[in-house]
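# nightly structure sweep
# worker-07 picked up a monomer target from the shared queue
# config: single-sequence mode, recycle default, output format = structure tokens
# input follows
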Amino acid sequence: MESLLTDRVAVVTGGASGIGREIATTFATHGASVVIADIQAAPREDGTPTHEVIERETSAEAVFVECDVTNRGDLEAAADAAENLGGLDVMVNNAGIVGPVAPIQDVDWAAYEQLRSINLDGVFTSCQVATERMIEAGNGGSIINMSSVAGLVGYANITPYNLAKGGIRLLTYGLAAELGAHDIRVNAIHPGIIETEMTRTDFPVVGGEDEADTLEGIPLARFGRPEDVANVATFLASDLAAYVTAESIVVDGGQVRTA
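# output follows
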């Protein structure tokens, strides 16, 4: 396999589980050193921590940093770990939660604030930290923000999630305009329904009672797999995307069919 990310160093927030885990391991397969920044090392799916898998199965370096994205100090520590590996080249802002699933009038304010602090404020702060490091190094870079199809179209009963993911989309566009002069590219990925613990447990679509009806609305007639998203992230992190910035790439099997 061609190594697209040789000599790159990436931080992946939420890299212990699900999509983040797949992004981190795929990056490593393509030659990147990876910092797994998560609130816990153990994956939600059970099994070996991501950084240990990378070091066992690839020639890449990997470290775990305990990181709550609502804490700027934790994000700085993740960036410091990247500096120790050679310098931050790629920041993947993947950490997030589903948050409250309820009609808006029933949404608890504390639950809303928790979702916003993780899904939106955490991404904003991480982008600040990454930007400071990348500009100081002067080598350009790639920031990849994980949004959602919910950041493109509205879904009932997850209004706070829609709001945060939509905010990420516009944050991405604004930063791309600001940072292009520094050769820092900023893009967003909008996954559809991807088979992870989040879509099995937190917002149970995969394996849920409406699974068949949902699949009927997806032209490719299947749910996404974490590697479907990881492959797009690898492209955006690599020189193959050297002239790609301010883009929203939808990875949903055609479900939302955006113009």
